[in-house]
Amino acid sequence: MRDLLAFPFLLLCVASTDGFNMLRTSVASVSRFQQEQGGTAIIAGNSVSSSSYNGYTSSEVPLDMTKQNDGPDYYRNSDQCLKNGSISSSHCASISLDCNFVGQFGQAKLCMNRLPTSKGKWFVAALKCIPVWENCDKCMCGFISSEGPDATCTFENQTPDDDVTQVTCTDLSSATIDGTSFDIPSSGGSSSTTSSTATSGPPPPAAMSSEQSTSVSSGSSSKAIWLSIAGLVAGIAFLALVTVKIIQRRRDAAYTEHQEEDELNLEEKETSSENGSSDSSEEKHTI
Fold it and tell me: What's the chain's Rg over C-alpha atoms?
């Protein structure tokens, strides 16, 4: 019986060693991919390092990373962009960011942060990649009217709740988004009316590169390994529990049987003793 209990734990050790080695290799591949694909944003027209996708702790990540919050953002018909210190719709044509990848926090999506100037002119201040389960603050210091291409931002004095973003909605002279600071033109800069060549709807998803496909495959393999290990552990725990219960029941049955035999022997001894005393009394009476 002792050998039976030892076998499941030996099996668990072997399975865990192989499984964790495979998992470590898979996660390392995803991490390298994420450093290349998820660590860039465009803020005030400049490409900068960003933690917008990778900067989450385990407590911030939901159990279901496939559940989408709001949809991927895109240029609206009235959007203008900040670049080289000026705001113009013509700048948007040269500002884009590809967020069509899957990393350690699931599918990514494009998020655009818009800000108003002190005179109420809205502009796209940042483009960044975030997980689909995260909410995108499309209009900082306000709210967006809809998800359609003609949507506009409306001012509301609500400071963004973000530990890497510092914006004071009542003092729109400068801002910090994802750790990058920049000045906000007070007059709105260029008043160019050049029509934007940006799309009026969500851009079509780009085909995944071979490296992205490898990352997706690695993520799926990691999940499968974890599920296999979890199932193995659950099965071994159940087997161990059943084995312990069987041993305990057998011990209880043996103890009960032994106790009943002792009680029966004691009763027989007492009966024999009583019979012996009765016979002795009868013999004395006869004499």
Answer: 37
